[in-house]
Design a protein that fits this description.
Blueprint: E1 2-6, E2 9-13, H1 29-32, E3 36-41, H2 48-55, E4 56-58, E5 64-69, E6 73-77, H3 82-85, H4 90-101, H5 106-119, E7 136-141, E8 151-153, E9 156-158, H6 163-184, E10 190-196, H7 205-218, E11 222-225, H8 237-240, E12 244-247, H9 265-277, E13 280-284, H10 292-308, E14 315-318, H11 326-331, H12 335-348, E15 362-365, E16 372-391, E17 397-405, E18 408-416, E19 427-431, E20 438-448, E21 458-460
Parallel strand pairs: 2-16, 3-6, 3-14, 6-7, 7-10, 10-11, 11-12, 12-13, 13-14
Antiparallel strand pairs: 1-2, 4-5, 8-9, 15-16, 16-19, 16-20, 16-21, 17-18, 17-20
Length: 461
């Protein structure tokens, strides 16, 4: 069990899981060709000065820190969802490329930012110099919607319902990417490859993707894919032809605060899934980590990387979009985002991030058939917000929690097991009261449903 403090409350969640077959394998940066990637969404006002803090950490006075190099791959994307999920027109595809490679385009700004940083005065008073790892870009690839049977692009018309023509349309787009990149003769940034914007293998995609990624390989372009948690085909990324893939935990946007059911146990499950599939893991910053609770949630991602092993692999980072960006908020002196920015930089440079509280010891009793009681003594009083229990499938009943406060034991909440557990993580979440009480001991009681006599098997609390 491990703790992660969210605002004034506490989540109790799982120890790291292991994939069923062998030890997890998170690809190393040398295998992917980059260490840390950031998704950069096109927006008004982007310029070299705003991009520079993506590349190297800047202190509160705006000076770059010599040991604070951060992202070495910038993935450029539009904010329009139709780019990733369709339908989009030739104008949409080329409008995005114009924003990247035209006068004052994003790639030009990245190139200029690298040059400006080399000559900039660092915190220590000397010129910062060149980055320790070359900076590169990956350009987003739009989704060729298969329902479009007359897609006009670059003087040709493609029937996207036909697999060969669907791949050919993507090939024409890739030609534009390469031609525009080469015509600008960038001196400080290289073209790593492209990023497949759609986050799942939808419909015919599983059959068509090998031909589409073949267009990328034919042009010498690497490809990156970042599917969402449990996305169809996520673990077949290599068979689809992608060169690298990272799995989204999708926790930052599907927790109870957003109306979802995910909890911090999702991080360990994602780490195990990604490791089993040979994938990296995506770091997700909700709301730009601009509030204490959002900062704590990001810290939980980083602590998972340290604890579960994927910190040493390559990482992809979603840090926000227009108006909700971790880097922008950190540079605007937002206290929570500033702390998150500094921690993220140090973590990407190898510093560990620990869970805020050590793992307590659990004592287990089985007072009646099918019933189990687990009690933990905490190292200090905490205010519980939620307890997550991971059960081995096969037992049904209720899970209740109580805590010992200054005035004695109090009931904190209960939840029933679902009729059918999800296949990846049989989690039972018990929410504590709206105004939680500080407790120094936690008791978890598992009571069987009528007719259930088998002993509950708890993988972790």
């Amino acid at each position: 069990m491990a703790f992660a403090i969210l605002a004034s409350s506490l989540f109790v969640t799982a120890a790291p899981g292991q994939p069923a077959a062998g030890a997890p394998q998170w690809p190393a940066p040398v295998d992917a060709g980059f260490r840390s990637a950031a998704l950069l969404y096109q927006e008004e006002g982007l310029d070299p000065a705003r991009i520079a803090p993506y590349l190297v950490n800047h202190d509160a006075t705006g000076r770059p820190q010599r040991d604070g190099w951060l992202f070495d791959l910038i993935v450029t994307l539009p904010t329009d969802a139709s780019f990733a999920y369709g339908p989009a027109s030739q104008g949409d595809w080329n409008q995005f490329l114009d924003s990247q490679f035209g006068p004052g385009g994003t790639v030009s700004d990245i190139d200029r930012a690298v040059a400006d940083l080399a000559a900039a005065t660092a915190v220590d008073g000397a010129p910062l110099g060149a980055p320790p790892r070359p900076v590169s870009v990956a350009v987003g690839v739009p989704y060729p919607e298969e329902t479009n049977t007359a897609f006009a692009y670059q003087g040709s018309v493609y029937d996207l319902s036909q697999p060969a023509q669907r791949a050919a349309a993507v090939g024409a787009y890739l030609d534009q990417v390469q031609q525009r990149f080469q015509s600008n003769s960038y001196a400080n940034v290289s073209l790593w490859g492209v990023y497949w914007a759609r986050e799942d293998a939808h419909g015919r995609d599983a059959a068509d993707l090998p031909a589409i990624t073949g267009q990328m390989r034919e042009r010498g372009l690497k490809s990156l894919w970042v599917p969402y948690y449990s996305a169809p085909g996520y673990d077949r990324w290599a068979a689809f032809g992608f060169d690298a893939a990272a799995l989204q935990p999708s926790l930052a946007f599907t927790s109870p605060r957003d109306g979802g059911g995910a909890n911090l146990g999702r991080l360990a499950v994602t780490a195990a899934r990604a490791g089993a599939a040979g994938m990296g893991v995506e770091v997700e910053a909700r709301g730009g980590a601009a509030s204490p609770s959002e900062r704590a949630l990001l810290d939980a991602y980083l602590a998972s990387g340290t604890r579960d092993g994927w910190q040493a692999g390559f990482k992809v980072h979603y840090i926000g979009t227009v108006g909700n960006n971790l880097v922008d908020k950190a540079m605007s002196a937002n206290v929570a985002a500033r702390g998150a920015y500094d921690t993220l930089t140090a973590w990407n440079n190898g510093d560990p991030v620990a869970w805020p509280s050590p793992e307590p010891a659990w004592r287990t009793k089985n007072p009646a058939p099918g019933t189990q009681v687990r009690t933990a003594i905490l190292d200090r009083p905490v205010s519980l917000r939620e307890v997550s229990v991971v059960l081995v499938p096969g037992w049904q009943g209720t899970v209740s929690i109580s805590g010992r406060s200054a005035t004695g034991w109090v009931e904190l909440g209960w939840a029933a097991t679902p009729a059918a557990f999800p296949t990846d993580a049989p989690l039972v979440d018990v929410a504590a009261p709206t105004d939680p009480v500080a407790v120094d001991r936690v008791r978890v009681r598992l009571t069987p449903a009528p007719g259930v006599t088998s002993r509950p098997k708890v993988e972790r609390v």
